[in-house]
Design goal:
The complex is a heterodimer. Chain A is mostly helical. In chain A, about 85% of the residues lie in helices and about 0% in strands. Chain A contains eight helices and no strands. Chain A is globular and about 55 Å long. Chain B is built from eight helices and ten strands. Chain B has a six-stranded mixed sheet, with helices on both faces. Chain B has a four-stranded antiparallel sheet with strand order 2-1-4-5.
Chain lengths: ~230, ~230
């Protein structure tokens, strides 16, 4: 029995451990990413055939369709990510560790963000081909990153809350969409601006809003996560 | 090692624990018995810092809950009827993950020691989803003792185990008791805890209704003591 426990393992070490665990488990099962990916592709295809738009109109709706796809797929992933922990009791395993519980939040947040970004990386080229739009613009990619950070930051917190209820599958979107509405709106505006080659001054406001929302959501989640996960 | 005074736990209007007083000395093995709904799991979850007490004091290894929860958690090992493991990771990966969460240095050596103790050394690289319920429960114990805790909490650890797996769990629990760890275990199975525990506490209607040491029980059997405590 020569273990050397330390009362307070490093905050970053705990975050890294959770991210490593999530990525390792996911790349073995593809349970989460595959469902998000299939769902995203279905949404894109449905919009593509349902709207039957001309090229000009397509460009104007691209930002909205893109973020609707990301939001729905993201919700699916967020729900599943926390449900895996809850159903197998491993959420208690995490909460029993002698680490600041906000490290658990950041670990789950980074994993969820990685999954969402991975799905987006796969979806973007398919979307570009189907909608005949170049989505590989540095500005647009920055907006996608900022929007995904904000959405995942608040989504991770709310999924930790909703997973403890019996109606978690229904409850998460009900809680998440109104709260994340501001992020999604700013992301759609900024994405639309880049796709329509708008003036930079017009795009800067939604980008600044996105950065502000990201900071606020991460800070609030950091402060309240402990209270949310404790009975 | 564990001191609980006038512990009350309410969920909304429902009071589950109604002023529990409970004390465990270092090295004691306490079996916490009681009918379904008596509050055993709630009580253990409070000791494990997974749930906040509504009222009362909880002190473990000199640290007070909930203010010093991180220090308490560093000294606790918890095993429930759920294994708290990741089925898409191997046995070794699960232990490595928890070792990192507990800040254990030189964890490879420690993981090997633990896997030998729980008899899963040959299955260390196998995914947990290929394990039987009994093997998962042994690995769950391995996870709980990885950081060498002073206090072990077991919540119905025999749930879902067959006869062989239960016997193996008995052996591991005996080993833990011999190592001088303080153990609190809830169980429905009176016959199984009778030989393991050094003290028996009956939790009924939200309070400790009766307590007896193994020595005191030699004059009567555990089942009679249990029934009398519930009727009183």
């Amino acid at each position: 029995m020569d273990a050397h426990p330390t009362p307070s393992p490093s905050f970053l070490q705990a975050i890294f451990a959770i991210v490593w665990k999530d990525l390792r488990a996911e790349f073995r099962s593809f349970e989460l990413v595959s469902s998000m990916l299939v769902f995203s592709l279905l949404v894109i295809l449905i919009f593509n055939f349902a709207l039957e738009l001309d090229i000009k109109t397509r460009q104007s709706v691209t930002a909205g369709v893109l973020w609707t796809t990301f939001a729905f797929a993201g919700t699916l992933g967020l729900n599943r990510s926390m449900a895996i922990e809850k159903d197998r009791g491993s959420l208690d395993g995490l909460l029993l560790a002698p680490v600041d519980r906000s490290a658990i939040y950041f670990g789950k947040f980074i994993s969820n963000l990685a999954f969402m970004l991975l799905v987006e990386i796969i979806v973007l080229p398919i979307y570009s081909i189907l909608y005949n739009t170049n989505l590989f613009q540095p500005g647009l990619l920055l907006v996608i990153l900022l929007g995904s950070i904000g959405y995942t930051a608040v989504g991770t917190l709310l999924s930790a809350m909703s997973v403890q209820t019996r109606t978690r599958d229904v409850l998460l979107p009900i809680l998440l969409f109104p709260v994340a509405f501001s992020v999604l709106l700013a992301a759609v505006k900024a994405s639309g601006g880049f796709l329509n080659n708008s003036e930079l001054t017009e795009i800067l406001l939604p980008i600044n809003l996105l950065i502000a929302y990201d900071v606020i959501f991460i800070a609030v989640s950091f402060m309240v996560f402990d209270t949310i996960v404790e009975e | 090692m564990i001191i609980v005074k006038k512990l009350v736990k309410r969920f909304g209007l429902k009071t589950v624990l109604r002023g529990v007083d409970f004390e465990v000395q270092p090295g004691e093995f306490v079996a916490l018995l009681g009918p379904n709904g008596a509050g055993k799991t709630t009580f253990l979850r409070i000791l494990a810092s997974l749930s906040r007490p509504s009222l009362g004091e909880v002190n473990i290894a000199g640290y007070r809950l909930p203010n010093q929860a991180a220090q308490v958690r560093a000294r606790l090992g918890v095993v429930s009827h759920l294994p708290l493991l990741y089925t898409d990771l191997s046995a070794e990966e699960n232990l490595r993950f928890y070792a990192r969460l507990y800040g254990i240095t030189n964890y490879q050596l420690r993981i090997t020691d633990v896997l030998e103790l729980i008899g899963l050394e040959t299955r260390r690289r196998d995914l947990v989803r290929t394990f039987s319920r009994g093997m998962q429960q042994r690995l769950a114990i391995g996870r709980a003792i990885l950081h060498d805790p002073d206090v072990m909490l077991f919540d119905e650890p025999y749930t879902g185990l067959d006869q062989d797996a239960s016997s193996l769990l008995d052996d591991i629990l005996n080993t833990l008791a011999r190592q001088g760890r303080t153990v609190v275990m809830t169980s429905h199975d009176l016959a199984r805890v009778e030989d393991l525990a050094t003290r028996f506490d009956i939790l009924s209607r939200g309070v400790i209704a009766a307590t007896a040491t193994q020595r005191q029980l030699k004059r009567t059997d555990l089942l009679t003591f249990y029934k009398q405590a519930l009727v009183a």
